[in-house]
Amino acid sequence: MTSSPAQLFAIDSLLTDDDRDIATTVRKLVDDRLRPDIAEWYESGSIPARELAQEFGRLGLLGMHLTGYDCAGASATAYGLACLELEACDSGLRSLVSVQGSLAMFAIWRYGSEGHKEQWLPDMAAGQAIGCFGLTEPDFGSDPAGMRTRATLDGTDWILNGTKMWITNGSVADVAVVWAQTDDGIRGFVVPTTTPGFSAPAIKNKLSLRASITSELVLDGVRLPADAMLPEAKGLSAPLSCLNEARFGIVFGALGAARDCLQTTLDYTASRQIFGRPLAAYQLSQAKLANMTLELGKGMLLALHLGRLKDAGTLRPEQVSLGKLNNVRESLSIARECRTLLGAAGITGEYPLMRHANNLESVLTYEGTSEVHQLVIGRALTGESAFR
Ligand code: TGC
Ligand code: FAD
Q1: Is the pTM of the predicted complex or chain greater than 0.70?
Q2: Per-residue pLDDT tens over the stretch 308-354
Q3: Residues lining ligand 2, judged by CB closer than 6 Å?
Q4: Has residue 388 been placed in a domain?
Q5: 334-351 as b/e, with b when 16 or more CB fall inside 10 Å?
Q6: SS3 state at 341
Q7: Cα of 136 to ligand 2 centre, how many Å?
Q8: Which entry of 9, 198, 224, 370 is 20 to 30 Å from 320 by CA?
Q9: Which range of residues forms the domain containing residue 219?
Q10: Are 260 and 348 contained in the same domain?
C-alpha cells in the first residue's frame, strides 16, 4: 500500500468540510475542463480568457473571499485551496483569478465608492467583466513608490499619463485599476479600458506564464471624471494592501504546481524501468521523493496556518512574506528536481514539469521578488529597513 504526500501529512484532517468541498469542485473543473487543453494553450501562448473568466465566475471563484456584490464570501483558506487546485493545472490560470479577485476586485471592494462597487463588482464576480491592476512600471517594479505615472487635475477631471508594465489580463480587461502620483500622493483610479488614450499592447515572447495574458498599459492623456478616483485609497499602503491578498493566494497556489510535479513523478518513477528495476525502487530516487514530500507538506502546513490567521483577521504582511518566499522557492525547487527524475522525458511538453518550472520563475518574481520578501522579513526581525 502507498500513501500520497498529502496522506502522509494527514492534510485532510486539517480541512473543514467546506474547504474540502471547494477544493474538490475546483479540482473537478481542472480535470474535466482545463487539463485537457492546458498544454496547447501554453504552447500557443493564448488562452480563451473571457470564456474561462465566465466559467470561473459560474463557480464563484472570482473575488470568492469578498462579501456582498454577488461575491461568494468564502473563507480565506477555501480561497487559498481554490488557488492551489487551479495552479495544479497552470500558474497562468491562477493568475487570471488572482488578479481579478485579489487585486482588481479587492481594490474596488476595499477602496472604491458605492458607485464603483455597484458598477463593477457583480459583473466581475460573474466573469462578465475582466479587471487588471496597474502598479508596476518599466523602471519601477520592486520600488513602486517611485512610479512616474501621473494624474493631474483639469477642472474637475483627472488626466492620466504614463506607462505600466507586465500587467496581467491587461489586453483583455474591461477595467483597469491604475495607481498614479498626484499632488496628494499615490492614488488609485478606476479606468474603463474603452476610455480614449488608453491602450494595452500585449507583451510577446514570454518563455514563462505563456497561458496568461501580460501587457503594457499606455495612458496617453486619459481623461477621467472626478469620481474615477478610489476615494478611500490614500498613499502606497493602499496598493500594497491589495498585494497582501494576491500574495496570500500564491502561498497556496504555488504548492499546487509542486503537487502536480510530484504526483507526475511518483507515477513516472513507478513505471519507468531502469537497469531492470523501477526507478522508484532506487535509494537515490526515494531520497529525492522523500525530501520533496517533506517540503510540500511543510509548505502546506504553513499555508493552512496562514489561512487560519487570515480567517481570524490577525494575519500580518510579513507573515504573508514568510509564506510567499518559502512556498514559491520550494515549489520551484521541487519542479526542477522532478524534472531530473524524468530524464529527457522531463523536458518535453508531454509532462507538465518544465511548464510548471518555467511558470514558477514568474511567480518567484511577481507579487514581490524573493529578495523583497527576504527584506520584509529582515525588517520585521531587526527593525532595520534595508530596501534603500
Ligand atoms: P514602506 O515605507 O515600507 O511602506 C509604505 C506604506 O505602506 C505600508 N505598507 C503596507 N501596507 C499594507 N500591506 C503591506 N504589505 C505593506 N507594506 C508596507 C507602510 O506601513 C507604509 O504606510 P504609511 O501609512 O506609513 O505610509 O514602502 P517602501 O517604498 O519602502 O516599499 C516597501 C516594499 C519594497 C516592501 C514595497 O514597495 C513592495 O512590496 N515592493 C514590491 C512590489 C510588488 O510586489 N509589486 C507587485 C505588483 S502586482 C503583481 O505583481 C501582480 S502579479 C499577479 C499575477 O499574475 O498573479
Ligand atoms: P526589479 O525591481 O528591477 O528587480 C530586479 C532584481 O533586483 C530582482 O532580483 C530584485 O529582487 C532585486 N532587488 C530589487 N530591490 C532590491 C533591493 N532593495 N535589494 C536587493 N535586491 C533588490 N505588476 C503589476 O503591477 N500588475 C500585474 O498584473 C503584474 N503581472 C505580472 C505578470 C508577470 C508574468 C510578471 C513577470 C510580472 C508581473 N508584474 C505585474 C510585475 C511584477 O510585480 C514585477 O516584475 C516585480 O515586482 C519585480 O519588478 P521588476 O521586474 O521591475 O524587477
Answers
A1: yes
A2: 999 999 999 999 999 999 999 999 999 999 999 999 999 999 999 99
A3: 99, 133-136, 141-142, 166-168, 209, 214, 362, 365-366, 369, 371-372, 387
A4: no
A5: bbbbbbebbeeebeeeeb
A6: helix
A7: 8
A8: 9
A9: 131-228
A10: yes
